[in-house]
Amino acid sequence: MSVMPTSSYDGGTQPPPATSSASSVSAASGSGSVSALPPVSAVSAIGLCKAYGDKTVLDGIDLRIPAGSVFALLGPNGAGKTTTVQILSTLVSADGGQAQVAGHDLATAGRRVRAAIGVTGQFSAVDGLITGEENMLLMADLHLLPRREGRRVAAGLLERFGLTEVARKPASTYSGGMRRRLDIAMTLVGSPRVIFLDEPTTGLDPRSRHNMWQIIRELVTDGVTVFLTTQYLEEADELADRVAVLNNGRIAAEGTPGELKRLVPGGHVRLRFTAPDAYRAAAAALPESTRDDADLTLQVPGDGSQRALRSLLDRLDTAGVEADELTVHTPDLDDVFFALTKETAR
Amino acid sequence: MSSPAPAVRNSATMLRRNLLHARRYPSLTLNLLLTPIMLLLLFVYVFGDTMSAGMSMSSMGMGMGTGTGPGGAGGADRSAYVAYLVPGLLLMTIGSTTVGTAVSVSNDMTEGIVARFRTMPIHRGSVLTGHVIGSVLQSVVSVVLVGAVAAAIGFRSTDATALEWLAALGLLTLFATALTWIAVGMGLISPNAEAASNNALPLIFLPLVSSTFVPIDAMPGWIQPVAEYQPFTPAIETLRGLLLGTEIGHNGWLAPAWCLALCALGYFWSRSVFDKSGRK
Q1: Is residue B64 part of a domain?
Q2: How many angstroms separate the CA of residue B255 from the nearest CA in chain A?
Q3: Which residues of chain A have pLDDT under 50?
Q4: What does DSSP assign to residue A129?
Q5: By residue range, what is the domain housing residue B158?
Q6: What global pTM score does this model have?
Q7: ipTM for the complex?
Q8: Distance (Å, rounded) from C-alpha B100 to C-alpha B36?
Q9: Residues of A with CB below 8 A from B25's CB?
Q10: Which residue, among B109, B119, B275, B276, would best test binding to A if mutated, counting the most A CBs under 10 Å from its CB?
């Protein structure tokens, strides 16, 4: 009998983001030019509403994002993710509710908010007609950096994002992944404390996507708060300390990836048999299981803990049957997502 | 941060960006120059003799004013028509150049870079200011290029003083500023570059029905109002007067009045569209 966990959330493969970021928050605020105390919440919003005509896009959004963490806003297309980012980045004004970003009120201190944030939109906002280096220097100039410092910052970021070799080519000749990297590099020129990434990996190939994930993880080690939107559950799971599921303009659920997964049932052990006799015997011994007669598989509800597994194996031993394959399935964000957005799915 | 310095620096940066575009892709600007230069050559070398012969008795002649009647004695040769043509074509050059402005503003708006600018702590108007100043400079360069072609095929100012040359340059710059603000507004309301270049067509079309090629009173009656009550004609007549000594008359104040009105209209229109498109 082989035991192989599939599609289970494997927390061991990624570094614990919360601890690594918490230590660097103070470091960043100490070295930064802004002397204000780091706000406890990088982003906080209460009751954000937005409608375009008679179409309600956001219907009362509450958010509280601790400084130095990665927050993922997860939702299907049209859920209101981009609108949320547009409001929080002062691009669009909310119809109702209030919000603070980096400690500044959106409605009354838009300019201070803009000075503290960096935004990378859904579609790369780079100037394709000029080179990558010129794009970077453009950002440095707009942030009023002295010429020499601007060159230094630009060169450093181009190096960090692996763009030095193509720095003198027009940005329009870049691949999708290169454009996104340039986009994020441009965002970092102003040393933002809160970074909004609107679907940073949409349209990227798997390699570029993993590349981008690595970049986003490194951002947080600088003490920056990252607000990202995504329609990929795997991405939120990989990157985010906290995830909010946005559906139809409302937050359907919010919590750590682990907490969200606990919200939905769906954990089970799957037993597969090749011999019909063994299958029938096992089904009789495990009446609570869900049968799939065509596939000769049984799904036994359970959380996959050692105790539950042992008792299951004991019962199989007692019945004298042996499964040919055993897999443990813990709920992933897909289950959460589908459970939460089921009612409204078309 | 309300001191003028950051606004000026931001605008200068935006201007540098636009000039970089123009320098990196000169073909865009040069393409726009083709129309006035081709028209100049076409009307001088192909239609020139007929045009000047047809007009000499009515209003062109050596006097070349709108209503001054036959001035010189039978000077309806090619060089006289070149002289008649050039002021209008210089202004037409500005019209063509600003079509490029509308297109590049529209490109900026649709390609997301402006959204990026809006989320940055920069002076909001600097995006438009950069476009306008860049475009006016491009217009001046274009006018100089077309002027050089005109000079090469025989255009000479008859008696313009230094002051008149300066006034002519001032008028051209003012006119360019006016058309540029209008073009910026056209670019802002256009969903894409194609629409922008269509919306900006009046800037190319209007000089064709002005006093560029023939005096207005030589046109059919029904089109005379269109030719007369539009910005190109008074500007053309004023420029003619400055460079060629024809009578300027009421065009001397009508031309700058048109320019200032168009500047104001274009400015407030563009600002309102630009601000609205940001805060939906």
Answers
A1: no
A2: 37
A3: 1-36, 38-39, 345-346
A4: T
A5: 5-26+85-278
A6: 0.77
A7: 0.82
A8: 14
A9: 129
A10: B119
